[in-house]
């Protein structure tokens, strides 16, 4: 089995841009005591600036040449496709939200649940909603008031229902076809969403089952939940289109386009917005994703300069020099994306940064790229759901008026994700039949 011994040893100086980003990002947050002080785009820009002023001692080039390297890296085909998908995903979410598809999904789930399984049901609704929406933050914001109301009525601790919603939110963040993490993981590894989903779902399925079983054991007075909730089945059609067409293997761009179009038609039919207003709805959603799209381009340029400086070779060499098996390579990838997620508290950014490195490790060791995509998404999403500094826990804690630390012990699903992620790396399963 090939390992790092066959690689160029590279130069640690090539990692300075990444160090500059991480150190600045974390330090400013710690000093200020605020998680709003250092926007990720500014942190990435600082890393890019450092990269422009470094040189490979053996191959010094002009600043103009560095700009060319940066632009080629940022304009790489996979990254530009990722940018387009980000914008389409934002447009879809805005359209679906405006035509009340989100409300319908939540209310359908809560209306059909038997009262004696309200807590497992809340988890399932969170999973369905986050899978349909593709955003954990949107799921948390939507379900937090409902979760608080349920906790009050059935007499359970608010941190428990908060942890249930966080777990369900990270389910969708990890698996949804329109989640930015899925987009990043599949694009950086150049695999289809369908192939990644098959591997990823089988890896988390035991976690889903055990989490539901544990929630069934919680004693509650669910008879108090009797509220009638309205919904419209037609409103969930755009989500059904996205899920079905993605599963049959259609390219993501027409899938997103058809989802947006169906949402617009239903929204106009129900007079949620006019045809002219629909353009603003689409634009609003695209604006929501502009930061993420631009960050992807900046990271692509920074990684290209890091590669020129020898940083990527250095990282690959030290991550794989003692690696003699696929299992060890997968653990290296899981460790890399987990550490970046803990440092940045953003699972999408951790995937965008580590994705190209993980792909190179996979090529060197011979790891199936669908498994790499699944591992990147699983571990980054799990740690995002357990980070007291992450946006999901901060938003939930703020809405529930409790500390993020109080919620962590109840985010059982994310803990189980890590357990089974490690388990399936150890046993080398599931393995796609088709090798990428």
TrEMBL record:
Domain of life: Bacteria
Intracellular or extracellular location(s): Cell membrane
Principal place of residence: membrane
Gene Ontology CC terms, in alphabetical order: plasma membrane
A Pfam family assignment: Na_H_antiporter
Gene Ontology MF: a single term: antiporter activity
Designated name of the protein: Malate-2H(+)/Na(+)-lactate antiporter
Transmembrane listed as a keyword: yes
Organism name: Phocoenobacter uteri
Keywords, sorted A to Z: Antiport, Cell membrane, Membrane, Transmembrane, Transmembrane helix, Transport
InterPro entries referenced in this protein's UniProt entry, alphabetically: Na/H_Antiport_NhaC-like_C, NhaC_Na-H+_Antiporter
Domain spans labelled Na+/H+ antiporter NhaC-like C-terminal: 38-210, 278-428
High-level lineage: Bacteria, Pseudomonadati, Pseudomonadota, Gammaproteobacteria, Pasteurellales
Family: Belongs to the NhaC Na(+)/H(+) (TC 2.A.35) antiporter family.
């Amino acid at each position: 089995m090939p390992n790092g011994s066959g690689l160029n040893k590279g130069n640690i100086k090539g990692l300075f841009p990444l160090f500059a980003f991480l150190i600045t990002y974390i330090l400013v947050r710690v000093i200020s005591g605020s998680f709003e002080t250092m926007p990720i785009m500014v942190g990435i820009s600082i890393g890019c600036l450092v990269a422009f002023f470094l040189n490979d001692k053996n191959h010094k080039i002009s600043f103009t040449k560095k700009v060319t390297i940066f632009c080629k890296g940022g304009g790489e085909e996979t990254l530009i496709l990722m940018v387009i998908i980000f914008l389409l995903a934002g447009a879809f979410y805005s359209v679906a939200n405006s035509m009340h598809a989100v409300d319908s999904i939540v209310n359908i789930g809560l209306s059909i649940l038997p009262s004696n399984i309200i807590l497992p049901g809340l988890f399932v609704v969170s999973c369905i909603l986050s899978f349909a929406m593709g955003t954990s933050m949107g799921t948390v914001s939507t379900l937090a008031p409902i979760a608080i109301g349920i906790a009050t009525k059935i007499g359970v601790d608010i941190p428990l229902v908060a942890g249930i919603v966080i777990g369900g939110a990270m389910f969708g963040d990890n698996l949804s076809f329109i989640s930015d993490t899925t987009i990043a993981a599949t694009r950086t590894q150049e695999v289809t969403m369908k192939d990644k989903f098959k591997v990823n779902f089988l890896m988390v399925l035991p976690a889903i089952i055990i989490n539901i079983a544990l929630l069934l054991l919680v004693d509650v007075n669910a008879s108090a939940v009797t509220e009638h909730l309205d919904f419209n089945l037609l409103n969930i059609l755009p989500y059904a289109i996205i899920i079905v067409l993605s599963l049959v293997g259609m390219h993501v761009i027409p899938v997103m386009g058809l989802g947006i179009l169906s949402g617009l038609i239903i929204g106009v039919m129900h007079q949620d917005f006019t045809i002219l207003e629909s353009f603003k709805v689409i634009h609003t959603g695209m604006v929501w994703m502009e930061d993420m799209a631009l960050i992807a381009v900046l990271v692509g340029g920074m990684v290209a300069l890091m590669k020129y400086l020898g940083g990527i070779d250095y990282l690959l060499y030290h991550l794989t020099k003692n690696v003699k098996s696929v299992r060890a390579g997968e653990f290296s990838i899981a460790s890399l994306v987990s550490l970046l997620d803990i440092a940045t508290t953003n699972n999408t950014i951790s995937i965008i940064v580590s994705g190209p490195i993980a792909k190179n490790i996979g090529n060197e060791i011979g790891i199936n790229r669908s498994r790499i995509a699944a591992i990147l998404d699983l571990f980054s999403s799990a740690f995002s759901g357990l980070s007291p500094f992450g946006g999901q826990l901060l938003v939930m804690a703020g809405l529930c008026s409790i500390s993020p630390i109080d919620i962590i012990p109840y985010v059982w699903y994310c803990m189980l994700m890590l357990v089974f992620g490690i388990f399936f790396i150890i046993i080398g399963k599931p393995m796609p039949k088709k090798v990428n």
